[in-house]
Design a protein that fits this description.
It contains twelve helices and no strands. It is an all-alpha fold. The termini are far apart.
Length: 250
């Protein structure tokens, strides 16, 4: 390849490297501070809506972030190849010993492979979460009573006196629900599908989605455990929704 062609290719590669790096930083900030996680949504918005940008949620943008990272890596390798002679000269200049050069290259290659491969080989830590513990981190940040938890889910604008009365009513309702839940022996498992729950307890799936703040478009065949992780609700909330529907239709 002629020197002029090499310089031109190197120029375009550098521009693409700069753009990819800018995109990775921008998407990282988008995921961190705009398409916030479920726990942060409860604290900042008082509810858990589905946040999207250009029709994609934070997980889909995370996939795009990974793809751009791979493109960045390929361009970086090409950049190194185009500057290989200069890199070789600098290596020989600043690391005169051939043995030390070999050790430096070997360690760098090993670390490179470890950094890329470790997410594929590590085993995640598993922790059992019992019903009602889905928001332990949130409750440790802000002291919440039962009425405030309900208001976080569906905040209402009401006057001070009316608010005091409603808070007392909510406390009584929560207590009744927990007593009723034990009497009715409702058992919700993460392996159950929305459709399965609806059929078993005679609750419309649309009602479950509305009360749990789930997107209308998600499939009725989605398993509850997967939805719980993505939309950050507790199994006890599903039981409360079922009880609420039963009390509403008595």
């Amino acid at each position: 390849m002629k020197k002029e062609q090499t310089n031109r290719l190197n120029f375009y590669v550098d521009i693409m490297l700069f753009l990819c790096l800018s995109l990775m930083i921008g998407i990282g900030l988008l995921i961190k501070y705009v398409l916030i996680s479920g726990q942060e949504k409860w604290l900042m918005l008082g509810q858990n809506p589905e946040l999207t940008f250009w029709g994609m949620d934070r997980h889909q943008w995370g996939t795009i972030h990974l793809i751009i990272g791979i493109i960045f890596f390929v361009l970086l390798v090409l950049h190194i190849i185009l500057h290989w002679r200069m890199i070789g000269c600098l290596f020989r200049k600043y690391i005169p010993s051939q043995g030390i050069r070999f050790a430096t290259i070997s360690i760098s290659v090993v670390l490179f492979l470890v950094f890329i491969a470790f997410p594929l080989i590590v085993t995640p830590e598993k922790k059992s979460i019992f019903p009602g513990e889905g928001r332990v981190d949130l409750e440790s940040m802000v002291e919440l009573n039962d009425s405030i938890k309900v208001q976080l889910k569906k905040p209402k604008k009401i006057g001070a006196k009316k608010q005091d009365v409603e808070m007392q009513v909510v406390k009584e309702e929560v207590h009744k629900k927990h007593v009723s839940k034990k009497e009715n022996d409702i058992a919700i498992k993460g392996s159950m599908q929305l459709k399965e729950i609806g059929e078993k307890y005679n609750v419309p799936v649309s009602y479950l989605k509305e009360e749990l703040d789930l997107p209308v478009h998600i499939s009725d065949l989605q398993k509850l455990g997967r939805l719980k992780k993505k939309y950050n609700f507790a199994m006890s909330e599903v039981e409360d929704v079922i009880l609420k529907f039963r009390e509403k239709n008595k």
